[in-house]
């Protein structure tokens, strides 16, 4: 009991010092990230949103040639104001990929072949997590979602949201988009140095809780953004000579479909078509098609390798 009281007093004293320091414009204070599951289950309200925050570690970057070696997730619940009202316990699984880990993955994650030997993700547990979620959230959903869909092909489609690309971080006063950079700018640091899936999940949960200058939480803005349909514009048949202008415009190379593509808001469709007509499909540019291929995209398909 004495030790617990002493620890509490020490924590209160340190926090007092921290507040004194951060009142000075010459200093910034970073607090260690602590994500704690809430003891009580969330109330059941019709406007609450259940999010499954997840991250995977893999043997490589290409989902077709690589495998998941670690799956981590936390279920959370957001109320109508955008506040997180419940944080679930973490779920973490390791999985043996059936081959030795590349040296760079060992160095990055700290995982070894011995750690993974004989390990397997509990498919039923993952299915249960997905069933309860209204949205799945990852920091780079275009990376995580194809890996998850490949590993768990029987999962019912769920809307996905991406905290990396679904928030205009620069407009909100942040620099960069990496989780660690965003966390530091939010006044926190990750005490676990290893690049592990649960560390990234907890970092993202902390960011989702953060309030921006307008008073809204990042979770609130992300959910709103994810629900808006967008247009996926594919520069079908574009000549190789236009790849640099496409990249500069914000197009990315979709290797699975072998096409340059860009997702834009609905209202930007026609201006984008006009730009393509001039810069990609003009007769002098030798495109193999007359114009782009366009798909309307919702959160159910967004970031999926199965799209279109």
Structure summary:
The chain is an alpha/beta fold and 308 residues long. It folds into 3 domains: 1-29; 33-226, Ribonuclease H-like superfamily/Ribonuclease H (Nucleotidyltransferase, domain 5); 230-297, Alpha-Beta Plaits.
Please give a structural write-up.
- The chain has 308 residues and is of the alpha/beta class.
- The chain has 3 domains: 1-29; 33-226, Nucleotidyltransferase, domain 5; 230-297, 2-Layer Sandwich (Alpha-Beta Plaits).
- Helices cover 32% and strands 19% of the residues.
- The strands form 3 sheets. Strands 2, 3, 4, 5, 6 and 7 form a 6-stranded mixed beta sheet that branches. Strands 10-11-9-12 form a 4-stranded antiparallel beta sheet, with helices on one face.
- Helix 6 packs parallel to helix 7.
- The protein is globular.
């Amino acid at each position: 009991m004495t030790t617990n009281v002493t620890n509490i007093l020490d924590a209160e004293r340190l926090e007092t010092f921290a507040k004194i320091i951060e009142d000075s414009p010459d200093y910034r204070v970073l607090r260690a990230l602590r994500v704690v599951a809430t003891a009580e289950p969330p109330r059941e309200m019709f406007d609450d949103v259940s999010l499954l925050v997840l991250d995977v570690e893999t043997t490589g970057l290409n989902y077709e040639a690589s495998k998941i070696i670690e799956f981590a997730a936390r279920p959370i619940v957001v109320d109508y104001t955008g506040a997180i009202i419940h944080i679930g316990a973490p779920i973490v699984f390791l999985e043996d990929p059936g081959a030795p880990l590349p040296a760079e993955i060992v160095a990055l994650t700290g995982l070894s072949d011995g750690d993974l030997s004989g390990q397997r993700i509990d498919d039923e547990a993952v299915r249960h997590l997905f069933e309860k979620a209204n949205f799945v959230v990852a920091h780079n959903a275009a990376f995580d979602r194809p890996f998850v869909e490949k590993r768990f092909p029987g999962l019912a489609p769920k809307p996905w949201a991406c905290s990396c690309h679904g928030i205009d971080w620069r407009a909100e006063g942040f620099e960069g988009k990496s989780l660690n950079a965003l966390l530091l700018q939010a006044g926190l640091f990750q005490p676990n140095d290893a690049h592990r899936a649960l560390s990234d999940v907890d970092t993202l949960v902390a960011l989702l809780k953060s309030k921006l200058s307008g008073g809204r939480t990042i979770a609130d803005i992300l959910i709103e953004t994810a629900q808006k349909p967008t247009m996926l514009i594919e520069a079908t048949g574009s000549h190789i000579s236009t790849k640099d202008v496409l990249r500069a415009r914000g197009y990315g190379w979709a290797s699975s479909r072998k096409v340059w593509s860009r997702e834009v808001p609905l209202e930007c469709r026609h201006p984008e078509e006009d730009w393509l007509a001039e810069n990609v499909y003009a007769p002098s540019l030798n495109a193999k098609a007359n114009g782009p291929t366009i798909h309307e995209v919702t959160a159910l398909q967004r970031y999926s390798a199965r799209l279109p």
